[in-house]
Design a protein that fits this description.
The complex is a heterodimer of chains A (about 300) and B (about 475).
Chain A (H helix, E strand, L loop, with lengths): L5 H10 L6 H13 L3 E4 L6 H12 L3 E5 L6 H4 L1 E3 L1 H19 L5 H10 L10 E3 L1 H7 L5 E5 L6 H13 L1 E4 L3 E4 L5 E6 L7 H5 L2 E4 L5 H11 L5 H16 L8 H13 L7 H11 L3 H20 L1
Parallel strand pairs in A: 1-8, 1-9, 2-5, 5-8
Antiparallel strand pairs in A: 3-4, 6-7
Chain B lengths: L1 H13 L6 H11 L7 H12 L3 H15 L11 H17 L4 H10 L4 H12 L12 H27 L12 H23 L10 E3 L19 H27 L8 H8 L20 E7 L5 H17 L3 E6 L3 E3 L1 H6 L2 H9 L12 H12 L7 E6 L11 H10 L2 E6 L13 H5 L4 E4 L3 H10 L3
Parallel strand pairs in B: 1-7, 2-3, 2-5, 5-6, 6-7
Antiparallel strand pairs in B: 3-4
Classes of the chains: A alpha/beta (about 300), B alpha/beta (about 475).
């Protein structure tokens, strides 16, 4: 199942509970239409991973996720051999070998017979696919999410290149495995370090920023149905203002949603200074940030008082 | 359409964006899928292919506007005759302007083709051999800019003359309507304005992922918050111990990687080869030895007068770091670089620092010049940076108003894993006077004020190698 138009992407993502900007919808559509990986960048918590999940939901594809970290290597990302079985196999071969070469009369013949036998040692039977390989080998097209690719090492980035451009993986012992069905690939990055040009060249780039006011309000309404309409805007405006402060960690969409949820639980109908103070711990994750927000609030109310 | 995209691609290249052929191909491929009359979609498509990092996006947006909006006025010419006169004027300009690169670029821009002009600007910005006189000054750049500015005046004058000559008055045979004259004047004024703006406004890459930190936590209430400047001898000793302790901790975390290197992956081929000794029974298991990663560190430390008091302390830190890690390259500079890795290797700490501060390669009396330092680095040491290197620059960014050469820092950023800037100066002063922090800030991954031990501790804790 493919997307038909940009509008179609937007509607279907919305049905999958993901509200996105036209920017994101267009890029997803183009990537889908041309089988290109998407490199999604943006601050933490703006829904980069969620976008991949939503696409997998609305296309009805399975999602295979690879979380990157420093030290991630091919054995964990691509494939590994099942050593125990391989070793058992060698023992088995040792037992059986006599039966096989029994009839041979000369050494040359015996060698020929052995060479003609199926070699299962390095074969697909003993291979254990890891996320990247299973995405390539899957009969049904999948969504492959390579999360936080900026945390991985440069060597790993080099690995990805083959998959991203040709949708194939080369296993030295077996040869090249081509994708059965081309996966929809998402790479997300927090911009911890810059990705190489080679990687960037193979992807379409999408930068997701904090959402516009309207968009964020819609997201809150979607995820917290039944929330009071005035509260939604108060909440969103407050969050937007807090984001503008110089904080260690800016509140992202998930924090807005957490906040909305806690306010719902507390049955708050309207934001006030006291309520913000009490529930601030939901949105700020550092003590210094909390202090800054409170100070800002006090300054603002003082200013309002003078006017 | 293809012509247009190709032209735009060469424009973006001229302006310094990295756009490869495969990107242009992708772009053309994708164009078939979008609604051709929806400009928003078109722009999103171009941007997704041409500007592949957040830092480039601002530049792209600007170029896009320039190319598709400001330069495309010829689409809505009021009349045929205006187009004709326009050609006439351009021809006249071509004949009268000098044949050098600058004037030709300006002429192209007038004709609606900004490429040569963008290329010229890019060239000016990154050209380091331009300075004819004093090395390290940005006078060369400024002079070139001025020359272009003067070129604008020539163009303006020529056009004014031309229009003057066509004003209906006794004795003039060829005349142009008042309205068309006005339009022509407006057209060229607009273009010249665009050119001027391009010339004077420097492009600023978007660097939102920049990590800055200001610490509020109090670890060691007394010693920790005391600025390096006001430490006495005893406290310096005390602090040295703390630093050593910290660096050791850091080393431990890294050591864990070494400890894990033999766990996990079995090397089947080698195990089987070994097993032939025992009649095919795999008695000895051989594991794949993973070469543990060595994060490389390159440190560049300012030791000039303005950071003198903190410099000693920073050298302390450098020493501890280089003692604990392999492959640390340390440099100090005032106006030119000197490598001190060897000194750190050979001598014990106090002696090493004394030696470093008496280094003959560095003129301690000279004026700090970050630009010269960066040029020197590019000339001789660029190859030591690779994607595993963390580059730590320690200094206040006070460059005595010489050319900051931020361009080189950008190139360095491209080559290494992370660029971290530690500033021993209080944050309030960062952007005042001859401080180039604002310029350099845009090219760093991380930016920190390190004025006392607490901040230093925090930095070491966060340092990922």
């Amino acid at each position: 199942m493919q997307f038909e138009s940009v509008e179609d992407v937007r509607i279907r993502l919305e049905e999958a509970d993901y509200i996105c900007s036209k920017l994101a919808a267009t890029v997803v559509f183009l990537a889908g239409a041309t089988n290109k990986p998407i490199l999604v960048e943006g601050p933490a918590g703006v829904g980069k991973t969620e976008l991949a999940k939503a696409v997998s939901r609305c296309l009805g594809r399975d999602m295979i996720r690879l979380q990157c970290y420093e030290g991630l290597d091919e054995a964990k990302a691509l494939y590994e051999w099942e050593y125990a079985k391989q070793l058992l196999y060698t023992q088995m071969v040792k037992d059986k070998i006599y039966d096989v070469i029994e009839k041979s009369t000369s050494l040359t013949e015996a060698v020929d017979i052995i060479a003609a036998q199926e070699d299962a040692f390095f074969s697909e039977r003993f291979i254990q696919p890891r996320p990247l390989l299973s995405a390539i080998m899957s009969k049904e097209p999948v969504v492959l999410l390579v999360d936080e690719v900026d945390k991985s090492d440069p060597e790993f980035e080099a690995f990805l290149l083959e998959i991203l451009s040709d949708f194939q993986v080369t296993i030295p012992e077996l040869g090249t495995m081509k994708a059965v069905a081309i996966p929809f690939v998402f790479l997300t990055s927090n911009n911890y370090r810059d990705m190489s040009d080679a990687l960037k060249r193979r992807c379409i780039h999408l930068y997701i920023d904090y959402p516009e006011r309207e968009l964020e309000a819609r997201i809150v309404r979607l995820k917290q149905p039944g929330i009071d309409e005035t509260l939604v805007y108060q909440l969103v405006d407050a969050i937007r203002e807090i984001r503008n402060l110089d904080l260690k960690k800016k509140p992202c969409i998930s924090e807005t949603l957490d906040w909305a949820q806690s306010l719902m639980v507390l049955q708050v109908g309207e934001l006030s200074q006291d309520i913000i103070r009490e529930t601030l711990s939901v949105i700020t994750k550092y003590r210094s940030d909390t202090e800054k927000v409170i100070k800002y609030m006090e300054d603002m109310s003082k200013k309002a008082g003078i006017q | 359409m293809m012509q247009l995209v190709l032209k735009f691609a060469s424009c973006t290249r001229a302006a310094g964006l990295r756009v490869s052929t495969s990107e242009v191909l992708d772009c053309l491929d994708q164009l078939q899928h979008v609604n051709p009359v929806d400009e928003e979609e078109f722009k999103i498509l171009m941007r997704a292919n041409f500007a592949k990092s957040r830092r480039d996006q601002a530049k792209f947006d600007y170029l896009y506007d320039l190319f598709f909006h400001e330069m495309q006025t010829d689409l809505d010419f009021k009349s045929e005759s205006m187009g004709q006169y326009l050609q006439e004027i351009l021809k006249m300009l071509g004949e009268n302007l000098p044949q050098d690169q600058e004037s030709q670029a300006v002429l192209d821009l007038m004709a609606g083709n900004p490429m040569a002009y963008l290329e010229l600007l890019q060239q000016i910005q990154s050209d380091d051999n331009a300075a004819p006189g004093i090395k390290g000054s940005n006078l060369g750049q400024l002079a070139k800019r001025l020359q272009i500015m003067l070129g604008f005046n020539d163009v303006r004058e020529l056009i004014a003359q031309f229009l003057e000559g066509r004003t209906p008055s006794p004795g003039v045979t060829e005349t142009i309507d008042y309205q068309i004259r006005q339009q022509l004047r407006a057209y060229f004024d607009e273009r010249l304005e665009v050119a001027r703006e391009l010339l004077t406004s420097e492009s600023r890459p978007n660097n939102e992922s920049l990590k800055t930190s200001s610490s509020h936590d109090k670890h060691l209430a007394q010693l920790g918050d005391k600025p390096f400047v006001s430490l006495n001898r005893k406290e310096v000793e005390e602090m040295r111990e703390i630093i050593n302790h910290l660096v050791a901790k850091l080393k431990d975390t890294i050591g864990r990687r070494y400890a894990r290197k033999t766990s996990g992956i079995l090397d089947v081929k080698k195990t089987l080869r070994q097993s032939s000794k025992y009649q095919g029974v795999p008695v000895e298991l051989v594991y794949k030895t993973k070469q543990p990663k060595k994060g490389k560190i390159v440190t560049i430390c300012d030791v000039s007068g303005s950071v003198w008091s903190a410099a000693r302390f920073m050298l302390n830190l450098l020493y501890s770091v280089s003692e604990r890690f392999n492959g640390v390259r340390s440099f100090i500079f005032v106006n030119n670089l000197a490598e001190v890795s060897d000194t750190f290797d050979k001598y014990e700490i106090n002696q090493a620092i004394e030696n470093v501060l008496r280094n003959h390669e560095v003129e301690f009396q000279a004026r700090t010049d970050y630009g010269a330092m960066l040029r020197h680095f590019r000339r001789e040491y660029m190859d030591i940076l690779n994607k595993k290197t963390t580059l730590i620059i320690i200094g206040d960014g006070r460059s005595n108003y010489s050319n900051p050469e931020a361009d080189i820092l950008d190139q360095m950023r491209d080559k290494c894993r992370r660029v971290i800037w530690l500033n021993p100066e209080a944050e309030v002063f960062w952007y005042s006077g001859d401080s180039e922090m604002r310029t350099y800030e845009r090219y760093c991954h991380e930016f920190r004020q390190v004025q006392n031990l607490n901040q230093l501790m925090e930095f070491i804790k966060d340092l990922v190698l």
